[in-house]
Amino acid sequence: MVIDGLGAYLTPGFIESQTEADHYLKIFTNPNQKDYLGQGVTTIIGGHGGVSLAPLLYGSLRALRKYINPNRTNVNWHSLEELIKELGKLPLGVNFGSFIGHSTVRREITNDAARDLTDAEIKVFKKIIRDAMDQGAFGLSVGLDTVHARRVPQQEIRELLNEVRTDNGLYSVGLRNNQEDLVGAVNETIFLYKQSGVKTIINQFQPLLGFKKQYQLALTLIEKSGDGLFFTISPEPIKILPAYQLLPEWCQVGGLEEMLQLINDVHQQKRLIEKLKVNGELVIKEIPASYHYLSGKTLKEFADNRKLPLARAFLELLNLTKMKLVVALPEIDEELLAPWLFHDRALITAPSQKFLELAEARRWPLEKAVAKLTALPAKVLGLKNRGLIKENYAADLVLIKDKKIQQVLVNGSAGGKVITL
């Protein structure tokens, strides 16, 4: 095969260090991942937010329910090794790797009970981590911002990270709080990082409107914490999250069914509506197929159509979807976002093309911008043969011409595969 590259730039394939293609099962339903390829992305890493496709103790993907109906795929694996074999049967368009989801494992150990783990259960958990790491997992991910992990004791995570450190793995974390107590949440992460010595990635460290001082102080703390603490950030000025996370914290208890019961309790609704703060510009991002016609609509559009106040319209959406709703919020502080994208500790998530456009607007050299999308994430994630154009490296290549992605090769155009640490 001969490719005409005259007048074009050849770069390594871009690395998406925090994908949700696994959370929405798109790795199965849309294995070619053309959206990523169109952005120049050749490698995606999943299993973040405490939720992964493996390891599974009992073959259940119930931890995915806040994103999608997990019954959309046939689960015939338990270990990461078995998952890799299943994915190997698919026509993967990109390379895929995964963290171990803390909630995925913990919920099966405790059968969804909200309690501390026993010493025996901690030992079991460590064995599961050890086996998954031996099979190529990138480390442990914990979603402390989610209902199933928000009250998990710090000591439990510290114990598990000791096992991750033994295998030179990483820690991916969603902060317990990203608003008023952001600084406290970052200090907790820094403490665990220093105690464990495990390289750490803070998920979706998007600066939110109204919390400028907290974010600036938190960033200063990260900068002073040492060389092994990073954060992911997207050039899109929106925040994407499961809709239940917009409920007051006292409503975020148990599973989706329990939360649904709570928001419909007539004795609680008045208090809930008074405390509920929702933005009319909230956009419906992911919704069950039976309500696909609502995808892309704003909360205001939905509320106007139903002739409901915003708060009641939001609760109506939660009821319609049985809490299985993901939304996008335009609540990012763009003044902070722009410079933070170019911070030394920032790992850029999709859309890559938009980051390149912003880099050009800031007159950043192209090679420096490309390194942020390739060499840096490869180094942080420990990908030894990706992120550079170099002899004996994987032929993940992107041809850029006239500021557009013209050609993408994955493993020399042979297609994607499951990659391991």
Task: Explain what you see.
- 36% of the residues lie in helices and 15% in strands.
- Helix 14 packs antiparallel against helix 15.
- The chain contains 16 helices and 15 strands.
- By secondary structure, the protein is α/β, with parallel strands linked by helices.
- The longest helix is centred in the N-terminal third of the chain and has 16 residues.
- It folds into two domains: 307 residues, TIM Barrel; 89 residues, no CATH class.
- The strands form four sheets. It has a six-stranded parallel sheet, sandwiched between helices. It has a three-stranded antiparallel sheet with strand order 1-14-15, with no helix packed on it. Strands 2-3-4 form a three-stranded parallel sheet.
- The radius of gyration is 21 Å and the shape is globular.
- Helix 7 links the parallel strand 7 and strand 8.
Task: Outline the fold blueprint.
Blueprint: E1 9-12, E2 14-16, H1 26-29, H2 34-38, E3 41-46, H3 80-87, E4 95-98, E5 100-101, H4 102-110, H5 119-134, E6 139-143, H6 154-166, E7 170-174, H7 182-196, E8 199-202, H8 212-223, E9 229-233, E10 239-242, H9 256-263, H10 266-275, E11 283-286, H11 299-306, H12 310-320, E12 326-329, H13 334-340, E13 346-348, H14 352-361, H15 366-373, H16 375-381, E14 397-401, E15 404-409
Parallel strand pairs: 2-3, 3-4, 5-6, 6-7, 7-8, 8-9, 9-13
Antiparallel strand pairs: 1-14, 10-12, 11-12, 14-15
